[in-house]
Predict the 3D structure of the following.
Amino acid sequence: CPAIAIEQKVSTSNARSTVGTLTEIYDYLRLLYARIGRTISPVSGREVKRHQVSDVVDYLKGLAPGTRVQVVAPLPRKYADRTVEVELKLLLQKGYTRVFIGGELMHIEDALDRPDLPKGKTLAELDWQIELLVDRLALPEEADDSFWVRVADSVNTAFYEGEGNCVIWHADGHREAFNNRFELDGIEFLEPNPQLFNFNNPYGACPKCQGFSKVMGIDEDKVVPDKTLSVYEGAIACWKGDKYGRWLDAFLAVAHHFDFPVHTPYEELTEAQRELLWTGNEYFRGINDFFKELEEKLYKIQNRVMLARYRGRTNCPECKGKRLRKEATWVKVGGKAITELVDLPADELLAFFENIELNEHDRTIARRLLVEITQRLRFMCDVGLEYLTLGRLSNTLSGGETQRLNLTRTLGSNLTSSLYILDEPSVGLHPRDTNRLVGVLKALRDLGNTVVVVEHEEDIIRSADYLIDIGPAAGVHGGEVVFAGPFDEIFAKANDSL
Ligand SMILES: [Zn+2]
């Protein structure tokens, strides 16, 4: 059978590897967001939807019988070098008879005869509003299926001729616009797909930090090394001395104009107040300006020294350390962006998914993915890692944490008939979680695997089905099998053991 050593060290050299990618939970999250994520416009907070023919038909079905509307498509501009005359004649050939010019309905032949129509202009140059009348409808008292089939045909035609645009124009002048492109509030959005949420992929990664979450910049921790100090007491380390201290004096002289609490420790300032110190306002120039000024005179050696002193790896200002391009954060599941979920500890994330409310359609699509996600999160909690977030970098984990994470990944894969070897999985584990770890190891056994554990922790030893004690002492004084057998025989048979 295959033997699998579950290692303590991080075997990946990828600096972007996280708990989420290591456990594969993040991969399932990406699929989940691609399949059932809803894109919310950051401008209006409304959901971005690609209109289907059925959306327009449903809209019309909601209108009162007797309502008169016209199905209209804007004049297509795809063939930008065609002249207006050529395009109108083509429409005639396709069987259309009437267009709106500046909102006025007329036969296409009459339009072509209009002396003021810029017939020779290309479509790219045209600044007139020309629209195509596709159909006129009077909604009947009792509409039968054949009526709605005709409506759907007309709407489909309008979308086609209008390059994705269709307008329902009411007799009272109201225009209800639909488009089958993925846009809202004048923004063209990206269709969610798994790569959009992948910070290891150039498509999904934040363009500024390439998904690393950190960039070189002025480090807040270096500028404000002691956050218990107030601004007045000198919290801002770079604003000191004869020369640079003037920046602080200038700030203190005007702070009363905007009620800045100069005696409050930096750590107790609000987010907005701290931000203000960096950005400045109409009364004073902030920390950002201070460093910008230093950068403008790099030929001065003391400026280069100052900049080097405060420079460090800082959170990426573009993605705020979230690693993904901003479009990805506009996609929500259960009201939350994927970047919010990776900041939650595993147990809270598990609770989020256990209580998530989805409609029937989404639930059906997501069922399998939700099983994979919640199962793995439960494994994480079972091995005592409920405090880890998915966003945590793999290379900041301890050996014990890494091994237990690798264990959850193994459990998730449901492999059977394998031999697993673990070296002290209890390292760094809180004693109260030992039983849960034992439970996980037994679950692995019950799947039909053999589990070999090298361990000193007594509770784990006690739980073994079969014990091999190698001793009698450590290092060169050991090396002999002192005992081999079930745990309850060890006291009777091996005096030197343990
Ligand atoms: Zn970034």
Remarks:
- Residues 206, 208-209, 316, 318-319 surround zinc ion (CB under 6 Å).
- The longest helix spans residues 360-382.
